[in-house]
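In the laboratory, one determines a bound structure by crystallizing the protein with its ligand and collecting diffraction data. In a computational setting the workflow is compressed into a single prediction: the sequence and the ligand go in, and a structural description comes out. We illustrate the idea with S-adenosylmethionine.
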Amino acid sequence: MPFDQQTLEIYNGRSAEYAKWSKPVQPSKFLLRMIDMLPPNGTVLDFGCGAGWDAAAIRRAGFSVTAIDGSSGLVEEANRLHGIGAICITFDRFDMIGAFDGVWASFSLQHVPRESLPAVLKKINRALKPRGVLFAAMHAGKVTRRDSLGRLYCHQDMKELPYMLGKAGFSKPKIQIASGKGFDGTVAEHLYFEAAKRYDS
Ligand SMILES: C[S@@+](CC[C@H](N)C(=O)[O-])C[C@H]1O[C@@H](n2cnc3c(N)ncnc32)[C@H](O)[C@@H]1O
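The predicted complex, in structure-token form:
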């Protein structure tokens, strides 16, 4: 299964609620770090943009943003709230080549079925320009589970992730762990990682 329909339906059913909940109190330091690393007027892909708060912040910082998400409800919210022209497409159908200086994937990759993640990471790598960077956050650990809302979570192990990123054409990633609260109200360990497209990929 290239994507989890149930997870997307849950976001569709709660899109207005998720849009309110995900509004950042202040810009995330991780996002500011990516913005600092990008060339002026560069191009960014928000991969799983949700309600578009981060895509809008990236655009305000002077970048050209392409925002995609598989939930039609959240894409509607993103476009209603920010007018960012977000596109409804699932990750497995996304296919752009050499277009972006940066890819921002904030808490979207943990919903990709485990067996499909390597192919999705390759797609992200292909979408980057030479020396482009991926910044992503997802849930840490080894389990595959559904949360109390029914969303699929494929946690990623800090030791296995560098290997998977390497196979997808990325250089050695920088990884940090921090805990945070999710939309379902539970606290979990999160992985924040950044990796550059390798010159030979
Ligand atoms: C936890 S939300 C994060 C949204 C946003 N990046 C944020 O930080 O608020 C996860 C997002 O990933 C999207 N998503 C999950 N699986 C997807 C898939 N296979 N293809 C496209 N979007 C997907 C969901 O629709 C949802 O908007």
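The longest strand covers residues 128-139. Keep in mind that any predicted model is a hypothesis to be tested, not a measurement.
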